[in-house]
Write a structure and sequence with these properties.
The complex is a heterotrimer of chains A (232), B (281) and C (256).
Chain A (H helix, E strand, L loop, with lengths): L2 E14 L5 E14 L3 E5 L6 H9 L6 E8 L2 E4 L5 H10 L1 E4 L11 H11 L4 H14 L16 H13 L5 E5 L7 H16 L3 E5 L3 H7 L2 E4 L8
Parallel strand pairs in A: 3-8, 3-9, 6-7, 7-8
Antiparallel strand pairs in A: 1-2, 1-4, 4-5
Helix pairs in contact in A: 3-4, 3-5
Chain B lengths: L14 H16 L5 E2 L13 H10 L5 E6 L6 H14 L2 E2 L8 E5 L12 E5 L13 H9 L7 H11 L10 E3 L3 E3 L9 H4 L5 E6 L4 E5 L5 E3 L26 E5 L6 E5 L2 H11 L1
Parallel strand pairs in B: 2-3, 2-4, 4-5, 5-8
Antiparallel strand pairs in B: 1-9, 6-7, 6-10, 8-9, 11-12
Chain C lengths: L4 E10 L2 E11 L4 E5 L6 H8 L7 E7 L5 E3 L5 H10 L1 E4 L3 H4 L6 H11 L5 H14 L16 H13 L5 E5 L7 H18 L2 E5 L3 H7 L2 E6 L2 E7 H6 L4 H8 L5
Parallel strand pairs in C: 3-8, 3-9, 6-7, 7-8
Antiparallel strand pairs in C: 1-2, 1-4, 4-5, 9-10
Helix pairs in contact in C: 4-5, 4-6, 5-6
Classes of the chains: A alpha/beta (232), B alpha/beta (281), C alpha/beta (256).
Chain lengths: 232, 281, 256
């Protein structure tokens, strides 16, 4: 099985300089591997640092200790010493990230927002928009909303836009932070189905799922993120 | 040959000043179209009345020269008469109205219709020498633009003309490139006269008194008017001919003759018009 | 791939005061580099040195020409540097009136760089001007109007068109949205985002507005007292700032 992601001895501590340099250790000794076709569920109580871990894997939070290697084409890229350009390249073709919140770009229509990851890879506008429309339809977002910016959408609608935007590019590695949190039961089923399809197609998934049913439906393995003891 | 009136040095300016101006002129001739700074002197008439041209003329004039002075083509307007009288008084040289006989012609806003010949010098009075001034107020920057021949933006002005009027509406002081190098203002002559500057056998000197600049077009130098490929440079044409001499190819002034809208067209070059009339009669 | 712009050990002093010290980075085609920091942090001095307007006391700025030649900006003859500035580079000023010719029409403003490059065909220049007006979402029929008749947002869009008409590969932007109303800012940012992606522009963007930086920039440099205190991907710097000053800067912003 092809390893898509390998995490070794990852640790993360936040130092809050404006608060007198308080150090907050959040993660330590994280070790796991995820292969293509797997879905690793990150388990652990709230505050254990699961979201922080996902963000670190995406390169959003800086990797300070340990190693994160991600398969990019036929190479393993080490996040710790990757240039900004190679992290952007990873994000363009290899790693997708579904956050709990959609970061809205003013004035950009939903359809264009969803098509953007494809455009960034050089897909033509027509083709990218067609595929964006398919994804929005699949996720049950009413067509009358497609040409509006999602700023005024409900939480569930925004989340579906977010999922469409992240899944349209069919990344080999998907990082999912509560992708179904604000969805109703029907839409949750659709998203679970989409995630399973991606996994069956060979994607590696790492996710935080609050809902036990979702966890059971998509997860193939789980990894417990242990809360660190409070720093002295 | 009577010499200057008592108390005046020949040509009014002192010899040191004349030498300084001649050096500026020599430099100007050596770098066609380049504006040479010079130490402009106070003259006994105000700026705007041709102080630059007068200083150039005063520096090059000799006892054997024959001087002609025109203002807008005419030998007998106030400005022309005053400057002619001034030089008579401070040099005593012979003056003339005949273009062909003059060795130095000082002019304001025209080039004579009669073609000039080798050995003649045409001295222009220049109010504003800097062609780039309208788009760049800083002298340091315009100098740099000249040094680097950054002249493309000069067409912005012509573009504006075409956009607004459908054709290049600039009709006088029309910018030219001299010797394929320096952009130059020809002083406020009508663009009708621009082609006459091109490869003219006479030496053309330009003096700006207030702005303290001298520049030159040596004999037989290329002088090309700016234009666009699809809007080439053109000179004015009139439907009318001169009411006095019948000339069809000289620059015509429109003269209102009564208060009922009556008008006539006459040659702006009074000497040329006179000659044409004499030839007919 | 060679970086388009390569900056090393750049420094400038004004008398006893150090305005910029030891700044270095590489910038690639299609990349937007944001420079953030408060007033007096040296952002503008740095931008002026990068864009050929202020000779540094130390360090180098190198630009890769279209033919692949590596040009040392301040070793170049002045005419080459100025030629770059009006062809391969663009500069968008904070105040549109600093970057526009207010006395001539919108069309002439856009056409100027083409004429400066030696284009001598009126019809072609005008067609290009109309095309660019439309690309920056301005009505083509206003081509003959003076910029002074335009709103602030339109003036800024005109300034952008005027810069992009020669298809520059590198554009410097000094607080391009700072003097606009908030409602107009969003539209301009969106237009900039679109043009940058479409034309694969490399951009050096100076801004004090972190929201603008997040929207436009791929990478950020955080400046304080003339030095780069933190550099990284935009989302890294804004979401996980490391340096005390970056943390202060990020935490000072009101969340909308």
């Amino acid at each position: 099985m092809t390893t898509m992601l390998r995490v070794r001895n990852l640790a993360k501590t936040f130092t809050l300089h404006p608060q007198g340099g308080i150090r907050l250790p959040v993660l330590g000794g994280v070790n796991f591997e995820v292969a293509a076709g797997e879905c690793l569920v990150l388990a652990g109580p709230s505050g254990a640092g699961k979201s922080t871990l996902l963000r670190t894997l995406y390169g959003n939070y800086r990797l300070q200790e340990g190693s994160v290697a991600i398969r990019h084409g036929d190479k393993m890229i080490e996040l710790g010493n990757a240039s900004p350009q190679s992290i952007l390249s990873l994000r363009r073709t290899t790693v997708g990230y579904v956050s709990q919140f959609l970061r809205v770009i003013p004035r950009v229509a939903t359809l264009d927002l969803v098509a953007e990851p494809l455009r960034a890879r050089g897909v033509t506008a027509t083709e990218a928009n067609e595929r964006a429309a398919e994804w929005l339809a699949r996720l049950g977002l009413p067509a009358r909303l497609w040409h509006l910016p999602p700023a005024t959408f409900s939480g569930g609608e925004q989340q579906r836009v977010n999922i469409a935007r992240s899944m349209i590019a069919e990344y080999p590695l998907l990082l999912l932070d509560e992708p179904t949190a604000s969805l109703d039961a029907d839409n949750r089923r659709i998203v679970v189905d989409l995630m399973n399809r991606a996994r069956d197609a060979g994607a590696a998934l790492v996710g935080i799922f609050h809902d036990a049913d979702v966890r059971a439906a998509v997860g193939t393995r789980s990894y417990a993120v242990e809360p660190l003891r409070e720093a002295a | 040959m009577s010499g200057p009136a008592a108390g005046y040095n020949f040509g009014y300016l002192d010899e040191q000043t004349k030498r300084m101006i001649r050096r500026a002129i020599l430099k100007a001739v050596a770098i066609p179209g380049y504006q040479v700074p010079f130490g402009s002197r106070e003259m006994p008439l105000p700026y705007g009345w041709g102080t630059g041209g007068i200083q150039v003329t005063a520096s090059i004039i000799g006892e054997d020269d024959v001087l002609k002075v025109i203002d807008q083509g005419s030998d007998d307007t106030t400005n022309a008469i005053n400057i002619r009288r001034f030089f008579q008084r401070v040099t005593g040289v012979t003056t003339t109205t005949l273009t062909g006989e003059a060795t130095i012609i000082q002019t304001r806003h025209r080039i004579p219709e009669t073609p000039l010949h080798e050995g003649q010098i045409l001295v222009y009075q220049v109010p504003i020498p800097e062609p780039l001034r309208w788009l760049e107020a800083r002298e340091s920057e315009t100098r740099r633009m000249h040094a680097l021949a950054e002249y493309g933006v000069m067409r912005v002005k012509l573009y504006e003309d075409i956009a607004r009027f459908g054709h290049i509406a600039t009709t006088y002081d029309y910018p030219v490139v001299v010797n394929n190098r320096y952009l130059m203002r020809p002083s406020p002559i009508p663009k009708f006269d621009n082609p006459k500057m091109h490869r003219n056998p006479a030496l053309q000197l330009f003096g700006a008194g207030r702005e303290k600049r001298i520049y030159a077009v040596p004999p037989y130098t290329d002088v090309v008017s700016l234009d666009f490929e699809d809007h080439p440079f053109e000179v004015q044409r009139w439907d009318a001919t001169c009411s006095l001499c019948g000339s069809a190819d000289s620059f015509l002034d429109e003269v209102i003759v009564d208060d009922a809208g009556g008008r006539m067209f006459v040659c702006s070059d009074s000497e040329y018009c006179q000659r044409q009339r004499e030839a007919i009669s | 791939m060679k970086p388009l712009l390569r900056v090393a050990e750049l420094g400038k002093r004004f008398g006893a005061r150090t305005a910029v010290a030891d700044v270095g980075f590489d910038l690639y085609a299609g990349e937007v580099l944001g420079i953030v920091g408060e007033s007096g942090s040296g952002k503008t001095t740095l931008l002026r040195m990068l864009s050929g307007q202020l000779t540094p006391d130390q360090g180098r700025v190198e630009f890769t020409a279209r033919d692949g030649e590596q040009l040392d900006l301040y070793a170049l003859p002045e005419f080459r540097r100025r030629l770059l500035m009006r062809t391969d580079w663009g500069y968008v000023h904070q105040q549109a009136r600093d970057g526009l010719r207010l006395a001539v029409s919108a069309g002439a403003n856009i056409g100027e760089r083409l004429m400066a490059q030696g284009d001598r065909h009126y019809g072609r220049i005008r067609d290009e001007a109309i095309d660019w007006l439309q690309r920056v979402e301005m009505p083509a029929e206003r081509i003959d109007e003076a910029p002074t008749t335009f709103s602030g947002g339109m003036q800024q869009r005109l300034q952008i068109a005027r810069n992009l008409v020669t298809r520059p590969r590198l554009v410097f932007m000094d607080e391009p949205t700072a003097s606009l109303d908030v409602s107009v800012q969003a539209r301009l940012l969106d237009l900039l985002r679109q043009l940058v992606a479409e034309l694969q522009l490399a951009v050096v963007l100076v801004t004090h507005d972190l929201a603008v930086a997040r929207l436009l920039a791929h990478r950020l440099l955080v400046m304080k007292d003339g030095r780069v205190v933190e550099a990284g991907l935009t989302d890294q710097v804004l979401d996980d700032p490391q340096h005390p000053y970056s943390q202060l800067l990020v935490s000072s912003v009101l969340q909308a």
